[in-house]
Design brief:
- The mean pLDDT is 96.
- This protein is elongated.
- It is built from 14 helices and 22 strands.
- By secondary structure, the protein is an alpha+beta fold.
- Strand 21 and strand 22 form a beta hairpin.
- The protein folds into two domains: 298 residues, FAD/NAD(P)-binding domain, CATH 3.50.50.60; 170 residues, Flavocytochrome C3, Chain A, domain 1, CATH 3.90.700.
- The strands form five sheets. Strands 1, 2, 6, 7, 8, 9, 21 and 22 form an eight-stranded mixed beta sheet that branches.
- This is FAD-dependent oxidoreductase.
């Protein structure tokens, strides 16, 4: 490659410094490549969802069984065999690889000790979740990966967004960036690895691909689909763009939200704008998929209302504290906290209160007779110990009877998107004909393996696995 057309030339250029980008840079460097990482955010906010995630990866004890597990979880949305094979092989090596880098790896004793999809064939490959120091969240994985890059002299340029891929003779040979020194053209002999995260912070893309009209963010506000657009501009095909993970959330600041966990008591029900229940409120969320009507569905997709009583309010915070679950942009980056007894949220007006269900309905502009009957029928189910409408576990049927009564609007909290540029088992991006776009790789949330269901620690595992694959392949190509 001639250096005349470029301001600088490296063997491999990685776009993004989260789990996938860091893994790609570290593996390319290990292969002997000269590597540059460009990151659009400043150092204090870089790292994408990895920085504010649980930071754990699932422990794959049996790659052969893991192949079966992934295929079963994918269901009617199959993933290519070479991708399944690479995923099953590479995820089994993550903990060893990180230990070789110097990480203090230990299994989490509190979260994801068992698979969520225990009844699915192949789930016996799931042996728990490893984390840095055996602790969840708090940016520990991101901090370690950045330190590993710095220790090896791998340059990271913050405040340097990539704007366009450079193509010559059908191959990606570099990337244009807009850094502190202005626009530059940076060549990449072995290739460019896109590790730019998802598109959950781009409202238009969320509406177009996920059909969600109203949502708040759990992760990074920098996940705006930049890599998706750059890849599409050079002919990349897309896969499973409609898959994602939302959970129950509450809007805080513009664009960000709190996770509504409801772990402390069961004196509540969910109703739509029509004042009627519509689902088993306690069905496990399973990373964005809820069992409903005998099959798994994406949930939630639209706002609804939490109705609860004084017993629930005083039982503990509706959203877990950072000491319990140190995950999410709002907690870790904004420093936002939910009050221990939910009183501050009542004072702020987030939670509406009233002395009766009828008065509560009127305050939230809901038909009072309908909501009254809904709560009455629900309380009858609690008394009888049987939910004939939605088969809620009898052990969770806590009556809503003690005033004051409360209502809280729940908004889908979008954790991550799954779809993006289609890639093969070597993390090479494919065009709309299924051919490899030479010199272009994708890893992490921009091009998640998961076409449908996924288990705990799967996303970080996927990012680290295919980041390594991409970096290794690009470094060798150089």
């Amino acid at each position: 490659m001639s250096g005349k057309a470029f301001d600088e030339v490296f063997d491999v250029v990685v776009v993004g410094s989260g789990a996938a980008g860091s893994a790609a840079a570290l593996e390319a460097h290990r292969s002997g490549a000269d590597v540059l990482v460009v990151e659009k955010c400043d150092e204090g906010s870089a790292g994408g969802n990895t920085r504010v995630s649980g930071g754990g990866w699932w422990v794959n004890r049996d790659p052969e069984r893991a192949r079966i597990f992934l295929r079963e979880l994918s269901g009617s949305f199959p993933v290519a065999d070479d991708v399944v094979d690479a995923w099953a092989t590479e995820t089994a090596e993550i903990s060893t690889w990180l230990k070789e880098l110097g990480a203090d790896v230990a299994m989490s004793g509190d979260y994801h000790t068992d698979p969520e999809y225990l009844s699915v064939e192949g789930s016996d490959s799931y042996a728990g979740m490893d984390t840095i120091e055996g602790r969840m969240g708090n940016g520990l994985l991101h901090a370690f990966l950045i330190s590993a890059l710095v220790e090896r002299g791998i340059e990271i340029r913050f405040d340097t967004p990539a704007t366009r891929l450079i193509v010559e003779s059908g191959s990606v040979v570099g990337v244009e960036v807009d850094g502190v020194s202005g626009s530059q053209r940076i060549g990449a002999r072995g290739g460019v690895v896109l590790a730019t995260g998802g598109f959950q912070a781009d409202t238009s893309m969320v509406r177009d691909y996920l059909r969600i009209e109203d949502h708040v963010l759990w992760g990074s506000p920098a996940s705006t689909g930049d890599g998706h657009r750059m890849a599409q501009a050079v002919g990349a095909d897309l896969w499973h763009m409609g898959n994602m993970m939302t959970i129950t959330g509450v809007r805080d600041t513009a664009g960000t939200g709190h996770y509504l966990a409801l772990w402390n008591a069961h004196n509540y029900l969910w109703v739509g704008d029509d004042g009627r229940r519509f689902v088993d409120e306690t069905a496990p969320p399973c990373h964005g998929h809820t069992l409903r009507g005998g099959s798994y569905e994406l949930f939630p997709l639209r706002p609804f209302h939490l109705i609860f009583d004084e017993q629930m309010r005083t039982a503990g915070p509706l959203s877990p504290a950072a000491e319990v679950l140190p995950v999410g942009w709002n907690l870790l980056m904004n420093g936002s906290r939910w009050s221990a007894d939910n009183s501050e949220e009542v004072e702020k007006g987030w939670i509406t209160s009233a002395e009766s269900i009828k008065a509560l309905a009127e305050k939230i502009a809901m038909d009072a007779s309908t909501l009254g009957r809904t709560v009455e029928y629900y309380n009858t189910s609690c008394a009888e110990g049987r939910d004939d409408h939605f088969a809620r576990d009898p052990g969770t049927l806590g009556p809503v009877v003690q005033g004051p009564f409360y209502a809280l609007k729940i908004t889908p909290l979008l954790g991550w998107t799954n779809g993006g540029p289609r890639r093969d088992g070597r993390a090479r991006v494919l065009d709309t004909r299924g051919d490899v776009i030479e010199g272009l790789y994708a890893a992490g949330e921009i091009s998640s393996t998961y076409s449908w269901r996924k288990d705990g620690g799967f996303h970080i595992g996927d990012a680290l696995a295919f980041g390594r694959v991409a970096g290794r392949d690009a470094g060798t190509r150089a």
